[in-house]
Design brief:
single chain, alpha+beta, 2 helices, 17% strand
Length: 95
């Protein structure tokens, strides 16, 4: 039994990796691979004399800062919802 897992091969720049993932996550992995390769190409084009290793560092830094930004926004969503709810109550009371 494979427990819903599949083996996939991904090409990240000049690196080929294999991963065992859940079938429902395959599209995420493929999309992530496309995104990483697109960002790698962007940095390689604007910094043609930079090593691949350093370009991957730039890509990793960009992805990490994007992740932190999204995480910060998500952590504020419950607070934002509560503030909206409280504002509605204040508006009802002050009418």
């Amino acid at each position: 039994m494979n427990d819903g897992k599949i083996n996939i091969n991904l090409q990240l720049g000049e690196h080929r990796i294999s991963a065992s993932i859940e079938l429902k996550q395959e599209e995420w992995y493929r999309d992530a691979t496309r995104l990483l390769n697109t960002r790698f190409k962007y940095y390689a084009d604007i910094m043609p004399k930079t090593s691949s290793e350093l370009i991957w560092v730039y890509v990793a830094l960009e992805m990490a800062t994007n992740y932190k930004s999204v995480s910060a926004k998500k952590s504020l969503e419950p607070i934002d919802e509560k503030l909206k709810e409280l504002n509605k109550k204040i508006e009802q009371i002050t009418k």
